[in-house]
Design a protein that fits this description.
about 110 residues; mainly alpha
Length: about 110
């Protein structure tokens, strides 16, 4: 269950990062509240997850989900480039994230 909570925390991290960039929503108060709630939920869920998952592993997985998710969201939503070199480095982050999960004692 802790891994699922950590995954949700990572998704909320992606949500608030996208919320910062999405210009049409930037001036809308409800969107600002949604971004703030995403930040809070991301942190709270991370705090819940680290009760069962080692801190270093949880933090690396959380940020890995955030990195991969925001790169994909940036490409899909904002037309940011997905060059082969960028994809290579995202794959390395993903490999490290999966490796930490696989070697975690929990």
């Amino acid at each position: 269950m802790s891994w699922f909570v950590l995954f949700l925390a990572g998704l909320f991290e992606v949500a608030w990062a996208v919320g910062f960039k999405w210009e049409p929503l930037a001036s809308k108060p409800w969107a600002q509240v949604a971004v703030a709630l995403s930040v809070i939920l991301s942190m709270v869920l991370l705090a819940v997850a680290v009760k069962q998952i080692p801190l270093g592993t949880a933090y690396a997985v959380w940020t890995g989900i955030g990195v991969v998710g925001t790169v994909v969201a940036g490409a899909l939503l904002f037309g940011e480039p997905l060059t082969s070199l960028r994809l290579l480095f995202v794959a390395l982050i993903l490999a490290g994230t999966v490796g930490l999960k696989l070697t975690s004692a929990h």
